[in-house]
Structures are given as C-alpha cells and as structure tokens.
Amino acid sequence: MFDHIFRPGKIGNLEIKNRLIKPAQHLGTATNKTGFITETQLNYYRNWAKGGVGLVIVEMAAIDYVGAAELPGMIMIGSDDTIPGLAGLAKTLKENGAAAGIQVCHGGGCKLGKPSFGPSKFPYVNIMGMKQDCEEMTEAQIGEAIENYGQAALRAKKAGFEMVEIHMAHGYLPDAFYSPKYNLRTDQWGGSPEKRMRFPIEVLKSVKKYAGSDFPVSCRISGTEWEDGGITLDESIPFARALEKAGADAINVSSAGAFTHYRIIIPIYYPRGTNVFLAEAVKKSGIKVPVICNGGITVPELAEEILAAGKADFVAIGRPLWADPEWPNKAREGRGDEIRPCVRQNISCGGAAVMKSGVFTCSVNPEFQTKYEGTLDKTTSPKNVAVIGAGPGGMQAAWVAATKGNRVTLYEKRDVLGGNLVEDAVPAFRVDKARLLSFFRHEMKRLGVDVKHEEASAETIQKGRYDAVIVATGSRRTKPKLKGIDKAIAVDFVEALQGKMKGNNVVILATDQEIRCVDVAFYANELNKKATLLFTQENATQLATDMGAAESGMQSQAIMDVLPKTPNISIQLGVEPVEITDRGVVVERNGKKETIPADTVVYVPEFVSNDEIAKALEKKGVKAAKVGDCVEPMRLMCYAIHEGHAAAKKL
Question: Is the pTM for the entire model greater than 0.90?
Fold first, then answer.
C-alpha cells in the first residue's frame, strides 16, 4: 500500500531503509546540568528504532554550555565527557534497525536563561514563551560558536552516529543570523542576504571540516518564520541552495521563528502537512540533495501522497511516534487501523498538562514518559472486568484490560462508542480526533471486547459477578442561569456539534477560557454559516492568555492567528450576555443594552460529574475505580485516557 514510504533512500553516503524519519524532539530525560544520556532515554529511542522508522535524529544536543537552552534534561554534546553516553545511544539505534543521527544546536536568543547571545541585541521570546533580552555576540564569540559546532559534530561521529543535523530553524542561532528581523548587524555578519547567511554557512563548513567531507549533514531550516520582517519562502530558497553548495547533504524544511513557536508543534487548527508546500518549493527550486518535510503528517496515507507526488524525499513524523512507536511497522504490515493516532492537541506535548507536570507526555499514549503501576504483559490469571462508559477514558481502560488478556465487558448507553469524542470529532479540522475515534472502535472489535449498548445499573454489575469494575460515565450537562436559556433558539456547544444549529446566523456566548466555543465557530464556518463570538474579555491578548492557561498556549496562539483569517467569523470583546430572546441575544456593552440578532444562540453548558452508579456500587459493597469526568467534570481528554490506562494497568 505504501510503496514510496518503504522504498530505501540515501542522505549523502548513508543508506536508509525507508523514507520515514524520527525528527529531533526534546524529551527532557537527560541528566540535569550535565546532559548525559539516561536509561529512560535509551528505552524510548530503542522503541522508536524497533518500531520501523528508517532514521532517528536524536533530540537537539547543545554544542556548549553557553548555547544550551537550559531546558530540564537537555542533551549536551559540548565536551568529550558526553561521548560514552552518546555512543550507547547510537549503538542502541543501530542495533534495533534504524540509522542513527543527532541534531546539534545553539539556542541563541531563544535559550532559556542567561547569558543569552544572538546576532544583535533584541527582545526575544525564549522557548518557554517568556520574553528576555539578548546581547549581541562579539567577533570572538561568533568564532567560538562556529568552532564548537564543528567539535560537536566530531564528537557525534566518534560516538558512532552516522550523520548530524544542524539546527538552523525556529529562531535558534543560525536562523537568527539569517533572519532580517533578528540580525540588525552592519558588519560582515549582517546586512545583505549573503552576509546574513555567512554564519550558518561557516557553521556547516566547520562541521564538514571536523567530521569529514563525506560525513552526512542535514540542515534544518525555517521555510518561513511566519513573522513580519522575518525569513520568507523567497529567502529560504536561496539559503537552501547556498547550504547545498557549501556541502549540505539534506535540507530539512520546517517553519517558525522565535515569536511563532506554535508553528513548530503544529496545533490542530492548521491542516495536516501544513509545511509541505515549503518543502515542495525548496525541492522544485532545483535542489539536488534530499529534502525532508515535516509538520502535522500524522497518517501513512498523507506521507505516501507527499512522496509519490515528489514534494519531498523523506517525511519526518515526530508526535505520531510519541503516540505510537510502531506506526511504521503497522503501516508496512497493512495494519493502519491499529495505529494510535496523534490528535495534535498540544496539551500533553506542549500545553496545560506539561505546565502541570513539567514533563512532555502524550495525550493518547500514557506509556510515553509516564509511569503507572503494573504492566501490559499478558496476565496469567484473567479477570472478568466491567467498564461502564465508552468515552476516551472508558475505551482506554477497556483497551488496556483486554490487551492484558482479561475478559472485558464495555457498557455504553448510547448506540455509538466514543462519549464526548463523538462530538469532538465532527468538525473537519478535527480529522485527527476522528481518526482516534475510529482507532478505539476498531480496537474494541480486534481485542474481542464485549460491547453492550445499554445503561448499566448497580444490579447489572452485581449480577455479572465481575472481578473488577471501572466507571467512566463522564459528566452531565446543565443549563447556566441566564434569562431565556430555555428558548428554542438556544443550544449548548455539544448540541451545536450534533447538528442543531439552525439558520445561517449563529451567535456564540463564549467564555474567556473555553476553546470549544471557538471550535463551534470554526464548525459553523464549515457549514457556511456566519458566526459571531461574544467574549466578556476586553483585551484580545489577555483572552489568548486565558484560553492558553485553560488548555494550551500553542492552541490559543494558533487560534488568534487563524481566527481573523477565517471567513464568516467575527469577534466582539467586552460584551456581557443579559438575555436570550426569540430574535437573538441581549447584551450589555459599556453600560448600554443592545440586541445582537441570531438564528441560533450557542452557550457553554455547566457540567456535573455523573458518578451515580459509582455511588450505588459503593453502597452495595462493590469496589469501582472512577476515571475521567465522573471524577471531576470537563477536564481534558488526556486526563481521562491516562486515568483509564492507570486503572486498568494495575488489574
């Protein structure tokens, strides 16, 4: 099915068994300060190599301690002391079937902490989204950095890596030197495009000098920084050509600058493969070395299409391998339905869940970077397990319990499986959530879970004589206190996603922390309806911050980028809903009342935990584990999945 994906390829003299690359992604599991490789890292990289990817490019390794991003657990490659650990990692990758590469980097003005240096004195945004001043590098510092890139590449080679990638994107030091926004110098290192690209070219030459002219080198660049005054596609193409001429063996085309990091870990509000057009343009400009594309490529079908159309030579899949390390093997074996898909929600891998735990995890794969009691090994004493509720938490619990070899009965009162995921998956832009819904449904059949479409009762469960019970009954929606809320014109946002928006003029009573309100607006636009979002917040910047605090800063930044560009959607700030009428909604603005006409008014319901059956079971002396929204309403999907996983894993 995927002939182009599984066709061998080459980068320089390095032979790669297929066209899939695991790109560099920070894990945060190296030792703090020293940046040495840990057993935890080895395990993850071992799994990715065994999963069938052709080339693994190990996460960014700092070339020196000045350029280190100071992220907790960042890999270091700035001294010979790091070579033994790196050698173990390179060996692990190769022994498990993948070619071994590593990315070397200097954070420049994007690094976290001080001192911070870049081409010019400039107020950067660091990789954690905080503003910090950056000092201009001296001639001596520039020369030292160039030297350190070369030394780092030599260490990578000594450690047994088969290629190195230079991080020249995302506002990091080489990108900053080439960017007309960040490089304000007027000496030999700035001004014209040729002078601005001098630093990254010298870095590449240094790497080739120390590692050898035949040692494969990939350069990861930003096809555009998506910033006013920053690098554009018209500038990245000659940059790619210059790098090729200077000895680059591959060009890895990403996007984003220091102020647009939300375009690196692509949120769901951008389409799949959003960076592919950049890679295609670079490739069609006459570049002869392989071009790597990346950015929201979540499914094998899209990867195959990109390669078959000649838009790129290799495809990088990052978060999809966090979600399912076996993605390549499953695609190659025709088991695409078994691939647990990345949903690009940016919560566990870059949002609220990361801020809470301090660890990059995965919403849909609790086995990644999270430790839970028990294993997924087949049990020697199978149990009869009841799972009540087939939302994401319930289906994950059923998946784990069945994977362990238990006999699982899944109760769901609706005639479809999925819980709130059913509505979440409706809008077209949420195609990856639809894929997750299909995955869960497929897995229930494959694993032989006995699905009963009926409302379970305490009596039902007691009669079933189950050895273990997991309750995942979610929450109930109630109406907020607002005059006219019972009018036929009014629906909550779940009902809106169920197709109950009437007419062409939709007004959405948004809350300042509820991203789902925006999702309804996007869905209304898909249906060619006019949508007006009403926020009580008066400041758009603060609005984005509030929404980001609730879920994901990257999501809210993407929303604030996409929303103004979306037809049929308008935003009104600083308005307070007073009453819903048959003609629309009465609001108060600046102390005055006015009516905003609408065919449908969408509101945010209030949620109450639906834990009645858990209480009833407790009264009958039946122990049950509660997971998801029945514990606490309207939390994030990742919590429900992780809790369901944890409850079933220790059975």
Answer: yes
